[in-house]
Amino acid sequence: MLDVLIAGAGPVGLWLAAELRLHGVEVAVVERRAAPDGRSRAVGMQAGTLDTFATRGLAQRFIERGTPVPTGHFGAATTRLDFSTVGAVHPFMLALGQSVTEQLLEEHAVAVGAQVLRGQEVVSLTQSPDAVEVVIRAGGTHRTVRARWVVGCDGTRSAVRQAAGIDFPGQDTTLTGWLADIELDDPLTAPLAATGPAGSFLAAPIGDGVHRLAGLSTATMHRGTGEPLTLEEVREQTRTLLGRDLGIRNPRWLSRYGNATRQAARYRAGRVLVAGDAAHMFFPAGGQGMNLGIQDATNLGWKLAATLQDRAPDGLLDSYDTERRPAARAVIDNTRAQLALFAAASPEQIALREVWSAALAEPQTNRQWARRIAGFDDPVSADTTPGAHPLNGTRLAGLALDAADAPTAHPLMHHGRPLLLDLGGTRTPCLADGVEQRAVTVNTEAAHAIWRDVTAVLIRPDARIAWAGTDTDPQRRAADCLTALRTLCR
Ligand SMILES: Cc1cc2nc3c(=O)[nH]c(=O)nc-3n(C[C@H](O)[C@H](O)[C@H](O)COP(=O)(O)OP(=O)(O)OC[C@H]3O[C@@H](n4cnc5c(N)ncnc54)[C@H](O)[C@@H]3O)c2cc1C
User: Fold this and answer.
1) Which residue ranges run through the membrane (predicted)?
2) pLDDT tens-digit profile of 248-302?
3) Which of ligand 1's atoms lies nearest the C-alpha of 288?
4) 105 lines ligand 1 (CB under 6 A)
5) CB atoms within 10 A of CB 193
6) Same structural domain for residues 249 and 278?
């Protein structure tokens, strides 16, 4: 019997497979499509995803294939978000087509031992107390596979989610935007945004001489997603929204997309879990869906592996739902707010967009939203322990180290185990099985101020901080650290 069967070889399923393999879990990914889809929905990889890939030593292979973009937008506001402030290892958004992302993730997943089986569609499943039986259709025949756990990473229409009886409440599409992946007579060197009473327009180079043009026009935003988009309409829309047509030619992909917004009522039903678009869908504003899904997988991988291997404390696997549902809810809210700004048409709505642009010029506000969009500020459950450090529960960011092999903690996390860093010059006598420990000094010039009083930090495999301590007494520190450690592993 397989340990884990994953439905869907999109970015989320492939990344989850690789994360499970870090812990030796036997995993297979079944994918309905016989061959990868050459089109790319996502063209933006956020700094938060690059940071995650850096914890496994993989960020560079993505960066080599993409183009760093130092700023981003929120609702096409004229003041851009400055990603250099977010405390990331790679403080930019990477323009990179989803098809390349998937190719690199598949190569990695296969290299670490995951099976990726194409032309195989999950059609139904049934659960028993110890296993899940999954019916898979391949080339006109059906077979049954048994797995201890199943994860649906099979997109918004997830067959796994439906078969597990997980509701997907929300709203259908009411507005549509359009996109064109296209060549331009005068290629852009940087992203372009324009807003006005007719709607909003974005354009950015996405590699290989192709540009992503995306617009939301108040005149056409009620057209259905199924209504064909022509080159002539893109030309006309570009002229209307931008004032010139950019010399568009040779379209690769023309499409409309909608604002259907839904979220799974729960992310787990017995031995079945959902992640990525199978768990949430929303208007693609700000380049967040794939990034959010990759964080779902990063959160789930080590927890599911620990559960399978009898290392998990009570409640660890359920914390996947309690941590990741609020994260998606926050992204849903910000995409709705962005859509309101994209679609601003009345003088009042246009004034709101201008007020918002002015607010983003304030550095603290800009940093807060740059961190949100980059994936660093998921809402966290507050640590109510008396004296708890404000870093507890947050994502690792802004920690610079004085170590030749590790300018940040990320290179020390390739193994995917919890990492205890001693930063205060004395070792915490806290060694436990399965925990890596390292003494390093903080580079106080480069580290964010919040790190300066920290004497030890316990970092989860998904680079979230389980506990940060300021005690200079090693014994007291060890006791606090062990309490935190018990929430991660037995
Ligand atoms: C226009 C547009 C632009 C976007 N831009 C961005 C962006 O810039 N940045 C960003 O982060 N996100 C963006 N997104 C969102 C992003 O594309 C998705 O969030 C992302 O693809 C989700 O990944 P996933 O692996 O969860 O699902 P998917 O990518 O949908 O993959 C699911 C896979 O499951 C397979 N499958 C489906 N059913 C079955 C079955 N029954 N059995 C087996 N396999 C099955 C499918 O064939 C597919 O390969 C955009 C979306 C759109 C529409």
Assistant:
1) none
2) 999 999 999 999 999 999 999 999 999 999 999 999 999 999 999 999 999 999 9
3) 11
4) no
5) 17
6) no
